[in-house]
Design goal:
Elements (H helix, E strand, L loop, with lengths): L2 H10 L2 H23 L5 H35 L2 H7 L4 H29 L8 H28 L3 H19 L8 H9 L16 H25 L4
Helix pairs in contact: 1-3, 1-5, 2-3, 2-5, 3-5, 3-6, 3-7, 3-8, 5-6, 5-9, 6-7, 6-8, 6-9, 8-9
Length: 239
C-alpha cells in the first residue's frame, strides 16, 4: 500500500475522525437553523456572520488540524512510521502523503456539511458563485491547517493540545476580531476567499489583500508544512 492509502485507512478506522464528522454536521446544522429562523433578507447576513466567527476559524481549523496531527500520531503509536521510514521513499514525500491524507479526509467531512447548508441559501441570493468560493475557502484553509497539524505532530508529542490552544487563543479570538492580527491568521485568508462570493460577507475582518494572494498564501503554507515536515522527519528519532 502507498503511504497515502495507509494514512487514509488509519484515519477511517479512528473513532476521532467520526467525532470530527459529527462536529462538521453540527456546524452545518447551525447554518440550517439560521435559515429557518431568519427572514429571507437577513439569512445571508446571519450566515456570513456564522461563517466568519465559527465555521472557518474554529470548525475548519479544528477538524483539519486534528486530522493532520492524528495521521502522524497514530502511525507513531502503532509503529507504522518505522516501516515507512525504512523504505526508500523520500521523507518529504512521506510528509506530503500525510498532509494529503489529512486534507482529503477533511474535505470529505467539511465540504458536504458546509456546502449543503449553504445550498439552501440559493433561493435567497447565494448563487453558484458563492458556493464555489465557499468550497474554495474551506478547501484551501483545510489544506493549510492539515499541513500545520502534520508539522506540529512531528515537532511535539502533544500536538492536538497545542493546536487546540492555537485555535482557541488565536484563530477564534484575537485573529478574528483584531484587525491588526488578520495577516497572521490562516482563517483570515480563508474568510477573504469567502468574501469574494458570499453576499453579506463584505463586512468580514479580512486581510487587505486580493483573493489571488490569499490563495497563494494558503497553498504556500501547505507547501512549507510539507517541506518542513520532511526535514524534521529526517532528523527526528523514531517512533
Amino acid at each position: 500500500m502507498t503511504p497515502v492509502a495507509i494514512a487514509l485507512r488509519a484515519l477511517l478506522g479512528a473513532r476521532r475522525t467520526w467525532v470530527l464528522g459529527v462536529l462538521s454536521v453540527i456546524a452545518g446544522g447551525i447554518a440550517l437553523l439560521i435559515r429557518v429562523r431568519a427572514d429571507e433578507f437577513r439569512w445571508l447576513d446571519r450566515y456570513a456572520e456564522v461563517t466568519e466567527s465559527l465555521t472557518i476559524p474554529t470548525v475548519v481549523a479544528f477538524v483539519a488540524l486534528v486530522l493532520g496531527a492524528s495521521v502522524v500520531g497514530d502511525e507513531r503509536e502503532d509503529w507504522t512510521i518505522l516501516y515507512l521510514a525504512a523504505t526508500p521513499v523520500p521523507r518529504v514525500r512521506l510528509a506530503g502523503a500525510w498532509v494529503l491524507a489529512a486534507w482529503v479526509m477533511a474535505l470529505v467531512l467539511l465540504v458536504p456539511a458546509t456546502a449543503g447548508a449553504a445550498w439552501l441559501g440559493l433561493g435567497g441570493g447565494m448563487g453558484a458563485r458563492g458556493l464555489v468560493w465557499l468550497v474554495a475557502a474551506v478547501g484551501l484553509a483545510s489544506l493549510a491547517y492539515s499541513a500545520l497539524g502534520v508539522l506540529l505532530a512531528l515537532l511535539v508529542r502533544r500536538a492536538i493540545i497545542l493546536g487546540l490552544l492555537y485555535i482557541v487563543l488565536w484563530e477564534a479570538t484575537i485573529a478574528t476580531f483584531a484587525d491588526s492580527a488578520d495577516k497572521l491568521s490562516l482563517g483570515a485568508y480563508g474568510r477573504r476567499l469567502l468574501a469574494q462570493g458570499v453576499p453579506g460577507a463584505q463586512e468580514f475582518r479580512v486581510p487587505t489583500v486580493g483573493a489571488a494572494t490569499a490563495v497563494i498564501v494558503l497553498v504556500a503554507v501547505g507547501a512549507v508544512g510539507v517541506w518542513a515536515g520532511g526535514r524534521r522527519l529526517g532528523r527526528m528519532e523514531l517512533p
